[in-house]
Amino acid sequence: MAEEPLVTAGNNFLLDYRQEPDVSCSRRDSHGRFVNPWTTWQFPSYSTMARLFLMEKNNSNVPSVKEVLDRELPVLEPYFVQSPDQCGQTGPSVQATWLGHATVLVEMEGLVVLTDPIFSQRASPVGFMGPKRFRDPPCTVEQIPRLDAVVISHTHYDHLDADSVAALNVRFGSGLHWFVPLGLAEWMRKAGCENVTELDWWVGSQIPGHDNVKFFCTPAQHWCKRSPVDDNKALWGSWTIVGPHCHFFFAGDTGYCSAFKEIGKRFGPFDLAAIPIGAYLPRGIMKSQHVDPEEAVQIHIDIQAKTSLAIHWGTFALAYEHYLEPPARLHEAMLNHGLNPDHFFTLHHGESRMIINKDTHLSS
């Protein structure tokens, strides 16, 4: 990472970002609601969304036969279920286990971090309706052997699941540290979370006792809503985790915007990134909020990722593309850019991959 000055404030770290003052931090409108500052944000009207959803064909075609899904998208038992004492990578390596959708168990620098945990059957405020998983979680919260931190990208139900938050609190209690964007700390505390750090874009903090690993909330192009009246009252974001040996990036949920080039400039190269590739059709609705596989590859390039893991696909049918289309288009997009497709890979549910950093970061 290019060396940049840091301004410290207590246990938090604020990037000196005066070169780009228009995106130095999050923005709000006159009503106090967070907004996207990029021209790439052009969210469609409700009438346009209704028209497109009615006119466009839903090609998701998720099979109803379990045997077909087991063959196409197998769910594996994570290694740590049988070998819990092996969880927690140290030194110049980062290991990721995909638990479905945007939930990734990340091991780096001696810490175990979980991203956007959802272990519920539905991404919904109620258990009897809403998007339902077509692939079960590969493990339960009780089978996660240890956990130091959770990062939350935004408040949508497929990324912030109340039942999963409650289960993690029961399992790990006060020993678990939560990192969330601005406006979400109150919700987390009401849900029983004790150690919550709420951050604006470009601001970082750390877990007490692990001062050499910093968690930065970084920008993403998205939005927040959990009820009819809370539109964008909380911020959304990506997460950058910077240690002395490895850098990890979690994109969360995002449309494409210019912020990723700046993330790469400030924190790259990344040893591993988790980047969404699914839920992108109809494009007239999804473009501002969800990248397609080609844009995911552009993020991979922008942030200077050495390797990337594809997330946000193969678990919930949230959009109209065929359920197996995202990885096929991802492979093609990597080839079109002249890149090795193995450097932006998919995993089976429950599968792990270790990335060993053979280089030395100049700064952290």
Automatic annotation (TrEMBL):
GO terms for biological process: N-acylethanolamine metabolic process; N-acylphosphatidylethanolamine metabolic process; phospholipid catabolic process. It is a peripheral membrane protein. Zn(2+) 2 binds at residues 158-159, 253, 312. GO terms for molecular function: N-acylphosphatidylethanolamine-specific phospholipase D activity; zinc ion binding. Zn(2+) 1 binds at residues 154, 156, 222, 253. One of its GO terms (cellular component) is early endosome membrane. Homodimer. Bile acids promote the assembly of inactive monomers into an active dimer and enable catalysis. This is N-acyl-phosphatidylethanolamine-hydrolyzing phospholipase D. It comes from Anabarilius grahami (Kanglang fish).
